[in-house]
């Protein structure tokens, strides 16, 4: 009997899959627990629509990420920091600060965990930074750290 799973079932399949199981297993275990429903025309149609919706969502998110990557590639962010002893940066520039600056300057919201720094930014200068926007889509930006000027 073909059934559409409504939840993950260990040894049978994942949620939303169309699987072939024995009649007894379906009637005595899956249906009473509302873990699966019979694969009639309506259920198969709903499954296809859900897959198309998921595919469309992935395509639109990928397109948006590529557009953001084109917007960010090669851009330079200027960060200001206080000078410590010997002209070194007091503290460090974190990925959280870079994410906030990206949001402020470009209007692109990026999770701080998606910003990859080669090493910690603890001194003044220019650093390359990778921003992972989506699965397989990333942009490389430059982060220029300069000293704050007292006004």
Keywords:
Ribosomal Protein L9, domain 1, 34% helix, 7 strands, Ribosomal Protein L9, domain 2, alpha+beta, 3 helices, 151 residues
Walkthrough of the structure:
It is a single chain. The protein is an alpha+beta fold and 151 residues long. It folds into two domains: 2-65, Ribosomal Protein L9, domain 1 (3-Layer(aba) Sandwich); 68-147, Ribosomal Protein L9, domain 2. Helix content is 34%, strand content 26%. The chain has three helices and seven strands. The strands form two sheets. The protein has a four-stranded mixed beta sheet. A hairpin with a 2-residue loop joins strand 6 and strand 7 (137-147). The termini are far apart.
- The class by helix and strand makeup works out as alpha+beta
The number of distinct β-strands equals: 7
**Cα separation of the termini:** 77 Å
- The geometry reads as elongated
Give helix and strand order, one letter per element, not per position.
EEHEHEHEEE
Regions with pLDDT < 50 over 5+ consecutive residues? none
The spatial strand order of the largest sheet comes to 4-7-6-5
Oligomer: single chain
Q: Please state roughly what percent of the residues sit in beta strands, choosing from under 5%, 5-15%, 15-25%, 25-35%, 35-45% or over 45%.
A: 25-35%
Task: State the CATH class of the largest domain.
Answer: Alpha Beta
Name of the CATH homologous superfamily of the largest domain: Ribosomal protein L9, C-terminal domain
Query: Counting H and I runs of at least 4 residues, what is the number of helices?
Result: 3
Indicate the percent of residues in helices: 25-40%
User: How can the largest sheet be summarized?
Assistant: 4 strands, mixed
- According to CATH, what is the topology of the largest domain? Ribosomal Protein L9, domain 2
Tell me the domain tally: 2
Radius of gyration: 25 Å
């Amino acid at each position: 009997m073909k059934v559409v799973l409504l939840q993950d079932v260990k040894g049978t399949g994942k949620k939303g899959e169309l699987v072939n199981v024995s009649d007894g297993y379906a009637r005595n275990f899956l249906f009473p627990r509302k873990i699966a429903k019979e694969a009639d025309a309506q259920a198969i149609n709903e499954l296809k629509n859900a897959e198309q919706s998921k595919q469309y969502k992935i395509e639109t998110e990928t397109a948006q990420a590529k557009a953001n990557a084109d917007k960010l590639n090669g851009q330079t962010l200027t960060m200001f920091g206080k000078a410590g002893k010997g002209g070194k940066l007091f503290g460090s520039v974190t990925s959280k600060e870079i994410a906030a600056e990206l949001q402020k300057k470009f209007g692109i919201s990026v999770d701080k965990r998606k910003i990859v720094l080669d090493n910690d930014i603890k001194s003044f200068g220019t650093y390359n930074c990778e921003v992972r926007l989506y699965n397989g889509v990333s942009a490389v930006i430059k982060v220029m750290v300069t000293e704050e000027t007292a006004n």
